[in-house]
Amino acid sequence: MNASPPMNKTLLQVEHLSMKFGGLVAIGDLSFEARRGEITALIGPNGAGKTTVFNCITGFYKPSEGMIRFTGESGSEFLLERMPDFQITAKAKVARTFQNIRLFSGMTLLENLLVAQHNKLMKASGYTIMGLVGLGGYRKASAESVELAKHWLEKADLMDRADDPAGDLPYGAQRRLEIARAMCTGPELLCLDEPAAGLNPKESLALNELLMDIKNNTGTSILLIEHDMSVVMQISDHIVVLEYGRKISDGDPAHVRSDPRVIAAYLGVDDEEVETVLTDVGDENVLERLDGHPDVAHGPSTSASMLAGPISDTIDHNDGERVTVSKGASKAALVEAQIASAAARKPATRKAASTKPAASKTAGGAAKATAGISNRLDAPRGGKADNLTRIKGIGSVNEKKLNDHGIYHFDQIAAWKKADVVAAEAYLAFDGRIAREEWISQAKLLAKGKETEFSRRVDAGKVATSHTSAPAKPAAGKRGGRK
Ligand SMILES: Nc1ncnc2c1ncn2[C@@H]1O[C@H](COP(=O)(O)OP(=O)(O)OP(=O)(O)O)[C@@H](O)[C@H]1O
């Protein structure tokens, strides 16, 4: 591998990529590039189309439209959308890991890394028994494979577990083993699908170190899907943000984290609330419903890739699921429209317009707006915050945002005045949702230790985007919301 990248920095160029499943547009006219020697992150809310982009790049799906140009280190070009997945791995040298770990759990760590080099070894054997049982070429390749496996076990801090079954490793170590296995194939591009999912902070740190080591000391570039922003913001050189299959932002971490479209996309759409948002948008004409079956012509290939694992894992998404997509559901698009209309307004009329809370949905506007919430606290009372996700409309992401700005308890929300609602809505980029979803009346009940139908579902662990730290039932007459 070569640690000094050649002059042409563009490694991967995605142009006008679209992927449709029946009536569902999972990716729409997406263009971006990943540069050689960099870590490029693909982020976006659930269902934004990130894994579908990976599946198109790695040949699991054949895109409905568009081009994926890969320029290898030697200068050779590949059009990945035209190649079957096993050739993408072998010729273009693109390796990947999956959202769900796919190791051979009964094999040792070392064996897992040797199996990954199976193609190289078979080639060295000349595909003959004689080659396998003793001719020099195979023996040399075999010794090299063991050395390479040891090198990556060392790098992944797993050497002392080399002879243990992979299934015995803790979760974070299994994630690193997967990456080590992919690195044993000598990739030019390593595609990682949510490598930090389920890791504790210590494991996350070890992952960051491994990825930075790969970036700094090998010629391998990384394309990363990740929800963990501490990983994304720390190690990425370049971030592409998707929402509903459309690119809403593209730039370095500083640019992306302050882009109002990104803030809106992340804060405005909780999984469970997509349907609510669609109803709010109220435009029946823009609804496209998936009638249950993916478009088989473009769907997953019957893979020959040894690392692919069971193909059924990639097609489970629509199992019994009703998928609904609406342009109007895009919070980023709403922000874009607001920015465009604000720009179109003359300075004289801008002042009048700015009395509307929704007009301040920029990062700066949001920061000012939170300063305007009147009853903020420095820390939760008694050191323990209420589970705000028991309020319908507040998911874990928005709970964290509220906590970050001094709102921890039901009674704080219950006491919100109109100006506080305006400030909170501007900060969370919500259009009238706080009033519509009756956060204040829910908060009043919860603060008195009463339950709502929704809070009962949260406490029973039935709401995916909420957490279930079911609070102890307060004694009668005591204010349950106060800690
Ligand atoms: N094989 C398939 N058949 C039908 N629909 C699919 C298929 N694969 C993906 N989709 C749909 O395409 C959309 C994008 O899904 P995708 O998994 O790419 O999103 P994502 O951004 O990776 O989401 P997450 O962060 O939850 O993993 C979703 O609406 C999903 O249900």
Automatic annotation (TrEMBL):
SUPFAM superfamilies: P-loop containing nucleoside triphosphate hydrolases. Residues 345-372 have a biased composition (Low complexity). Pfam families: ABC_tran, BCA_ABC_TP_C. GO terms for molecular function: ATP binding; ATP hydrolysis activity; L-isoleucine transmembrane transporter activity; L-phenylalanine transmembrane transporter activity; L-valine transmembrane transporter activity. Coiled coil: none annotated. GO terms for cellular component: plasma membrane. Residues 345-378, 456-483 are annotated as: Disordered. Residues 12-269 form the ABC transporter domain. GO terms for biological process: D-alanine transmembrane transport; L-alanine transport; L-isoleucine import across plasma membrane; L-valine import across plasma membrane. Keywords: Amino-acid transport, ATP-binding, Nucleotide-binding, Transport. SMART domains: AAA. PANTHER family: CONSERVED COMPONENT OF ABC TRANSPORTER FOR NATURAL AMINO ACIDS-RELATED, HIGH-AFFINITY BRANCHED-CHAIN AMINO ACID TRANSPORT ATP-BINDING PROTEIN LIVG. Belongs to the ABC transporter superfamily. This is ABC transporter.
